[in-house]
Design brief:
The complex is a heterodimer.
Chain A: H1 20-32, H2 51-57, E1 67-70, H3 72-83, E2 93-100, E3 104-113, E4 115-117, E5 122-124, H4 126-139, E6 144-151, H5 157-169, E7 174-178, E8 189-198, E9 204-215, H6 219-229, E10 238-240, H7 244-271, H8 278-290, H9 296-331
Parallel strand pairs in A: 1-3, 1-9, 6-7
Antiparallel strand pairs in A: 2-3, 2-6, 4-5, 7-8, 8-9
Chain B: H1 2-25, E1 34-38, H2 39-52, E2 60-68, E3 71-79, H3 92-105, E4 112-118, H4 127-139, E5 144-148, H5 150-154, E6 160-165, H6 167-175, H7 180-186, E7 194-197, E8 199-202, H8 205-218, H9 232-287, H10 297-300, H11 310-330
Parallel strand pairs in B: 1-3, 1-8, 4-5
Antiparallel strand pairs in B: 2-3, 2-4, 5-6, 6-7
Helix pairs in contact in B: 9-11
The chains are: A alpha/beta, B alpha/beta.
């Protein structure tokens, strides 16, 4: 039906910028077969195998879309509030804020909500949730309540109740679970939307159908996450902000590594060790074509004139600095 | 394994070096020698600017955390709404109180330890910043202001700096006396205004797990803006800003010079007046009349107001912090 918009492949452009040139030619092919879910982009997020029944299952009146785009700040917030939970609380819940797009839902913010959970009852402080939402709205007026999150790896009966609370706030709320108990030694992050099921008129229930979760970053967020990730390697989980020169050095080293990998692959293919793959070959073609065709002398002249500009500006800046220093000294005489 | 050791060694030496730098930077007995920030705070600040701060406006927010020994730990933060034209009666204090109360319910540290601000091309030293930081530091000894530079970050390296006012400057601000004499007495040059506190970023184990998950799941290609040679746009803008500041500074200097000239002119006039008076008095005496009453010369010649020197200091500081942070990255 018309509601099932064509392939969800357009969703990942934010998540995989480098692969966008090949994702674009892939989509027209996918357009014709909407049920065969998008050829998973090389950076395959969340569960590709379930994507096929997923798109079929989610066809229908779900304007929020079948993809949940998550920012890393949300996950960091959730983990942090889990670490600060009250004594005896097994899990924490909170509200998800963000924006709704035509095909997807983008979660950009969240805050935790105090709640009490026992064997047979659950109490959520909705007043608090409303207040917090008002406060948050003052800062980012475009964010709306999208749903709620909970830590822990399962959906319990209490979740159904809480989900109902949230249905009053948001249209078709999303439920996000972050498994902080690390079952299967993984922190699985899943998103669900609820659908009614059962026999109409008699026993009715709610079924939580899973959604794909994609991670999107702003550019600056990407850089921030890269930096924060470095704490994973440090023994006491502490890193200092590296100086500019160090960063340039490490970036150059990274590029050098990737280039040598590519070269190695090309050599292997040429010597027959590895079977040639057309898609990779096309990537390589694109790469080579992206390097502009400038004769080396011109390139050198351009580079040198650029450097000269910079040097001149630095010289002027240093001049200003010494002038100001002189000024200060004279004044204090 | 070797690379792991190397990186831990580098991290260790970076840590040690930053601590050493901290000691060198601290003038006298500063209360805070190092700032430790949670990864979450960094992400939140980035997000806040990205969503709400396009253009020249600065975005601001409050930092929450606690103080441990001589280390300031920042564990959370929340943004401040921008000053909109419509609701002038927007109660900032109330917003802050509400926010902190709510955060306390969910066990987030609700102790105010500082504030953050974004900057445009590296220039942030303004009177407003000085006033805010002074009031913060006056109330809370260990507070810092975090300056986040989004443009430099977009170019590839996270640019986050923590500043405090030096004790000397605190003294001057307390007196509220910004005349040239007071500043000369306190011997404040632009280098002594702010001190930079080294920053380290710390994450808990669970956050590290989450980061690994993200890395696995998203696998976004590396961004290489750091190595981009096309920096002329930024260079142009930075240079423009630098020129504006230098213009302001020269105007300020001209004002100061006029003031000095006025003062010396006035001295001369006073002198002349006094001499004339004396002569007249002598003449009158010789004629046997009463001498003219001595008028208070000071009332006749009001000394011109010395311009506040604080602004020029600020501008100087601004200029220098701006280019020192901006231009280094272009030198590669």
């Amino acid at each position: 039906m018309a509601a099932t918009a064509p392939a969800p492949a357009p969703a990942p452009p934010a998540a995989a910028p480098a692969q966008s040139p090949t994702a674009a030619p892939a989509t027209p092919a996918a357009n014709s077969t909407p049920t065969a879910a998008a050829p998973p982009p090389p950076a395959a997020p969340a569960p590709p195998p379930t994507a096929t029944p997923l798109s079929a299952a989610l066809s229908g009146p779900f304007p929020g879309g079948r993809v949940v785009r998550l920012h890393p700040v949300v996950l960091a917030s959730i983990v942090d509030s889990f670490e600060r939970r009250n004594e005896g609380a097994a899990r924490v819940i909170g509200t998800l804020l963000g924006t709704v797009d035509k095909h997807s839902v983008e979660v950009t913010n969240c805050f935790s909500v105090p709640h009490n959970e026992s064997e047979d009852e659950v109490a959520v402080d909705m007043e608090f949730a409303k207040n917090m939402y008002e406060l948050h709205k003052k800062v980012s007026p475009s964010e709306i309540i999208l749903g709620w999150y909970a830590t822990g790896h399962d959906i319990t009966e209490h979740s159904v109740l809480i989900h109902e609370y949230y249905s009053r706030e948001a249209h078709n709320p999303i439920h996000l679970t972050v498994d902080t108990s690390l079952q299967n030694s993984r922190m699985s992050i899943k998103a669900y939307v609820s659908a009614p099921m059962g026999v109409p008129g008699k026993t009715m229930g709610v079924m939580f159908t899973p959604l794909t979760v994609k991670y999107v970053y702003y550019d600056t967020e990407r850089i921030g996450v890269d930096l924060i990730m470095k704490t994973c390697f440090s023994p006491n989980r502490v890193i200092g902000l590296s100086s500019d020169l160090q960063q340039v050095g490490s970036a150059s080293a990274r590029i050098q590594d990737t280039l040598s990998m590519v070269l190695q692959y090309a050599e292997d293919v040429l010597s027959g060790k590895v079977a040639a793959d057309n898609t990779v070959g096309r990537f390589l073609m694109d790469l080579i074509n992206q390097v502009p065709k400038i004769p080396p002398e011109d390139f050198e002249t351009m580079l040198n004139s650029n450097i000269n500009d910079l040097l001149m500006v630095t010289y002027l800046a240093n001049l200003t600095q010494s002038q100001i220093a002189l000024n200060e000294k004279l004044l204090s005489l | 394994m070797a690379s792991r050791k190397e990186s831990s060694g580098a991290a260790g030496s970076g840590f040690g070096a930053s601590k050493g730098k901290g000691k060198a930077a601290a003038t006298g007995d500063s209360a805070v020698k190092q700032v430790q920030i949670d990864g979450l705070v960094v992400l939140k600040i980035i997000k806040h600017y990205q969503e709400e701060g396009q253009g020249n406006e600065v975005v601001q927010g409050v930092l929450l955390g606690l103080v441990v020994d001589d280390r300031l730990e920042i564990t959370n933060c929340f943004p401040f709404p921008q000053h909109t034209e419509d609701d002038a009666d927007f109660d900032e204090v109330q917003y802050q109180m509400e926010m902190m109360r709510s955060l306390r319910h969910v066990n987030i540290d609700h102790l105010h330890v500082g504030w953050y601000q974004s900057t445009y091309y590296g220039s942030f030293v303004t009177r407003a910043l000085l006033d805010s930081q002074f009031s913060y530091q006056h109330a809370i000894e260990e507070s810092v202001v975090l300056i986040y530079d989004p443009i430099k970050t977009a170019q590839g390296s996270l640019s986050l700096k923590a500043y405090r006012l030096t004790p000397k400057l605190m003294e001057v601000c307390k007196e509220k006396d910004f005349s040239p004499e007071a500043l000369k007495k306190a011997n404040i040059a632009y280098e002594n205004m702010f001190e930079e506190v080294p920053i380290v970023i710390k994450n808990s184990y669970l956050i590290n797990v989450m980061l690994w998950e993200l890395e696995k799941k998203s696998g976004v290609a590396d961004r290489h803006e750091l190595l981009s040679l096309a920096s002329s746009n930024h260079l142009g803008k930075s240079l423009q800003l630098l020129m504006d500041r230098v213009d302001e500074m020269s105007q300020d200097i001209v004002k100061y010079n006029t003031y000095l000239r006025n003062v010396s002119k006035q001295q001369q006039q006073k002198h002349q007046y006094q001499q004339r008076r004396q002569q007249e008095n002598m003449q009158r005496q010789s004629r046997g009349e009463a001498p003219l009453p001595e008028e208070d010369i000071n009332k006749l010649f009001k000394p011109p107001q010395p311009p506040p020197r604080m602004d020029s200091l600020l501008i100087a500081g601004d200029v220098l912090t701006a280019f020192s942070t901006q231009f280094f990255i272009y030198k590669c």
